[in-house]
């Protein structure tokens, strides 16, 4: 399933969502300009589980070069498809969560989900020396919050039916619930994979989504900007 757009208008302008997208694009352009220095840049600012695992045992590891990447990695991407896919999902679903929480709380929510997502990835890949980059974990938190807040919101979605592609409207619960199930099964299958191999950080997606549900539920108890609307 590929979501195209949702039919769930927000009542405020999504400054933070657009700002996050712009920053990600700018950082990606910087990545493209680095040439042969890109690998070192990704290693420095991406989350490397081995650094975290052996932080206290390796003198050369500092707090900044080990843990700052839990934030900086959210703004790095491995290619055009990686960037476009993430920003597309954020554009579709982010504005409504920003509308619900307000701009500043939404930014805090986004960053916190990203940090937790990377932490879950490190837990399941503690011996990996491969840097993990991407906004997927933070955006997964937004998806989790959207699913529990607007479960019946209509999402215009491309659905493959055998050899045909059908564009239909589906409830957000179906679209995002299906997305999470795919992440979970792939994450379970990846547990036995080599710690030195690259690929998709499935557990970052899972951790981000679940943390988004839990954190947003807690925030909704104490503070919600305005009642949700969908049609």
Automatic annotation (TrEMBL):
Q: Does the keyword Transmembrane helix apply?
A: yes
Primary location: membrane
Q: Name one GO molecular function term.
A: serine-type endopeptidase activity
InterPro entries to which the protein is assigned, alphabetical: Peptidase_S54_rhomboid_dom (IPR022764), Rhomboid-like_sf (IPR035952), Rhomboid_protease_S54 (IPR050925)
Per UniProt, residues of the Peptidase S54 rhomboid domain are 67-219
Which keywords fit this entry according to its UniProt record? Membrane, Transmembrane, Transmembrane helix
Instruction: Name the source's superkingdom.
Output: Bacteria
How does the protein associate with the membrane? Answer: Multi-pass membrane protein
Span-the-membrane segments of this chain are 12-30, 67-94, 106-124, 130-149, 161-182, 202-223
Give yes or no: UniProt keyword Ribonucleoprotein: no
Q: Where in the cell is it found?
A: Membrane
What would be one Gene Ontology cellular-component term for the protein? membrane
This chain belongs to the protein called Rhomboid family protein
From which organism does this entry originate?
A: Candidatus Scalindua rubra
């Amino acid at each position: 399933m590929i979501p195209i757009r949702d039919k769930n208008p927000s009542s405020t302008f999504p400054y933070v969502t657009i700002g996050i997208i712009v920053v990600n694009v700018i950082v990606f352009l910087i990545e493209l300009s680095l040439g042969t220095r890109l690998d070192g840049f990704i290693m420095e600012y991406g989350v490397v589980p081995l650094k975290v695992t052996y932080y206290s045992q390796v003198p050369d590891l500092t707090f900044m070069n080990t843990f700052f990447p839990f934030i900086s990695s959210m703004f790095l991407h491995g290619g055009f498809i990686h960037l476009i896919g993430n920003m597309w999902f954020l554009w579709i679903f982010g504005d409504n969560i920003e509308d619900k929480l307000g701009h500043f709380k939404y930014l805090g929510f986004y960053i916190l989900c990203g940090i937790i997502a990377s932490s879950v990835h490190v837990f399941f890949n503690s011996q990996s020396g491969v840097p993990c980059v991407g906004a997927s974990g933070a955006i997964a938190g937004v998806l989790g919050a959207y699913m529990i807040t607007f479960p019946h919101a209509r999402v215009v979605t491309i659905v493959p039916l055998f050899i045909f592609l059908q564009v239909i409207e589906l409830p957000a619960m179906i679209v995002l619930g299906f997305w999470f199930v795919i992440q979970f099964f792939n994450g379970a299958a990846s547990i036995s994979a080599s710690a030195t191999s690259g690929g998709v950080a499935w557990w970052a997606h899972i951790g981000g989504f679940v943390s988004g549900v839990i954190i947003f539920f807690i925030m909704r108890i104490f503070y919600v900007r305005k009642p949700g609307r969908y049609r």
